[in-house]
Amino acid sequence: MVPIDSATPAVEVAALSRLFKSGRGGGEVVALAGVDLRIERGEIFGLLGPNGAGKTTCIKILTTLLFPTGGTARVAGHDVVAEAGEVRRRINLVSGGESSGYGILTVRECLWMFSQFYGVPTREARERIEHLIDVADLKEFAGSRINRLSTGQRQRMNFARGFVSDPEVLFLDEPTLGMDVNAARRLRAFVGEWVRERQGRTVLLTTHYMAEADELCDRIAIIDRGRVLANDRPAALRRSVQGGQHVELELSGAGELPAAAPELDGVRLAWGAPHPEHANAQVPPAPGPGRRGRDPRARGSGAQDRADGHA
Known about the structure:
By secondary structure, this protein is α/β, with parallel strands linked by helices. The protein folds into 2 domains: 11-240, Rossmann fold, CATH 3.40.50; 246-283. Helices cover 28% and strands 25% of the residues. It has 9 helices and 13 strands. It has helices at residues 55-62, 84-90, 107-117, 122-135, 151-163, 181-197, 210-216, 234-240, 257-260; strands at 11-21, 28-39, 44-48, 70-75, 78-79, 91-95, 169-173, 202-206, 219-224, 227-232, 247-252, 269-272, 278-283. Helix 3 crosses helix 4 and helix 4 packs antiparallel against helix 5.
């Protein structure tokens, strides 16, 4: 395991851009258009956005799989272009739906092989592999060939593979894709425990599931069309759009509601429905139970308390 330098950010990106040549007419497609990010040690940082927003392109650059067109990116204090080898020693990547190793190997053999790619000592590797097999609920299939696993089982094995090197910075690109609800919940809980377990461990998560990011992440960046549109704690992002959220109720036997609406606590707007015995009302959602926020640099691990409440 490479010693962690807690004085430098886990990820630091400045004016990062990436252009792709279009297959038609020789034009260019802008995947990233000047992204700036700073992820502190010990954070679980979420990157959210629609398909084609630039999330996976950003992950590929940070994991040295793709060159940037412009700007700079440093992971664990090392430049992803000039010091790619140093970056690779300190990271790991789990990508949802990726190919799952070699089909003729068993789950245990595949995890062992990847542990050796990273030079994990034998005893440490064996203990870690057995623990990860248990975490991924694959004990029953540890001796099964990968090509005989279901899609969800292969994805759980991929998830375990991401932790086998005990990386300094872990990139999770839609890691629960193809998993059932119970498996996804269990593995999300493990990610949180893993980060808190030792100082300086950092996770960058991309996902389409806002609930997943809200549960796990200390901060979230919203990216679209290659630009970061917002970057804040989950609760702060929710508050920024709170004015547009409401619960719409249809009430039976409440034909007088529109006239009485100003006297009802919490009712923003009320109107009569076509049926004389029905009425509709808009009610803003009540704030969820509060969660104590924290600065990611305020404690040894650098992690941030899961901020403020769920909407």
